[in-house]
Design goal:
Layout lengths: L3 E2 L14 E3 L5 E6 L2 E6 L4 E4 L8 E6 L5 E6 L3 E6 L4 E7 L4 E6 L5 E6 L2 E6 L12 E6 L6 E6 L5 E6 L4 E5 L9 E3 L6 E6 L6 E5 L4 E6 L20 E5 L1
Antiparallel strand pairs: 1-2, 2-3, 3-4, 4-5, 6-7, 7-8, 8-9, 10-11, 11-12, 12-13, 14-15, 15-16, 16-17, 18-19, 19-20, 20-21
Length: 244
């Protein structure tokens, strides 16, 4: 399991902005430090800086589930795909605008990028997909009325939750299903800053900037999804809300 946090300073280094990652084994922390990336070995009390750098500060990071590939995007929207095995940049891509967040799917086959009011889905290169070209875009999701702020994948990589400054969270299915289409979760009164699927479930927790937390329960489970492109029926999904 990977976790992502944000801090204003980190172990006395010149930290500016960007998310912090724990490795899959929990023994290391990966953090942007200006235009460089530092890995802190918590188990052995050591740190090392990757021999790669950007012209601008890195602001968005994510690590592939197998721990071999790191995507780092700077404040100008230039993305670097970094191999942690060779510790080199293997691919580059220009989004031309600021990217708020990037997130690999749990199965390692895709990664999602939030830019402006859109979400871009790319195929991840590697043995999971049989694709070794860089940044192959598969889909683009629209629908938010303001800038997208956060994303999370469901446990089976079939659903994507996207928070926005328009105070809503959108649920997008990666594939077409007869009984589940794009769904909007409202009820918040401030910008969405976090959305998190529960383990082995489509239930989701959303958090807004003013501290409001909503827990959403979905009546549809992964085994209930029916493949197809027909319009969803009126009974496609029932979602309940509990507020805390």
């Amino acid at each position: 399991m990977k976790f992502s946090y944000k801090f204003s300073n980190l172990l006395g280094t010149v930290y500016r902005e960007g998310n912090l990652l724990f490795s899959s084994d929990g023994n290391s922390v990966i953090s942007p430090v200006g235009n460089r990336i530092t890995i802190y070995d918590l188990k052995n009390n050591k740190s090392s800086t990757l021999p790669v750098e950007s012209r601008y500060n890195y602001t968005a990071l994510d690590l592939s589930p197998n721990g071999c590939t790191l995507i780092a995007i700077n404040e100008q929207g230039e993305a670097h795909m970094i191999s942690l095995i060779s510790q080199t940049i293997v691919h580059k891509y220009r989004f031309k605008r600021k990217v708020n967040t990037v997130k690999f799917s749990p199965d390692g086959k895709h990664f999602a990028v939030c830019k402006e009011n859109n979400v871009f889905i790319f195929k991840a290169p590697g043995p999971f997909t049989g694709q070794y070209n860089s940044f192959i875009m598969e889909r683009v999701f629209h629908g938010t009325f303001d800038e997208t702020t956060c994303i999370d994948w469901s446990h089976d990589s079939k659903m994507l939750a996207v928070g926005s400054k328009d105070k809503s969270t959108k649920l997008y299915p990666l594939d077409k299903w007869k009984n589940f289409k794009m769904y909007t979760l409202g009820s918040h009164t401030d910008v969405i800053v976090g959305c998190f699927f529960e383990k082995d479930s489509f239930d989701i927790t959303t958090i807004s900037r003013n501290g409001q937390t909503c827990i959403w329960e979905c009546s549809v489970e992964a085994k209930d999804l029916v493949a197809g492109s027909d319009p969803p029926s009126k009974k496609r999904v029932s979602i309940l809300i509990r507020r805390y």
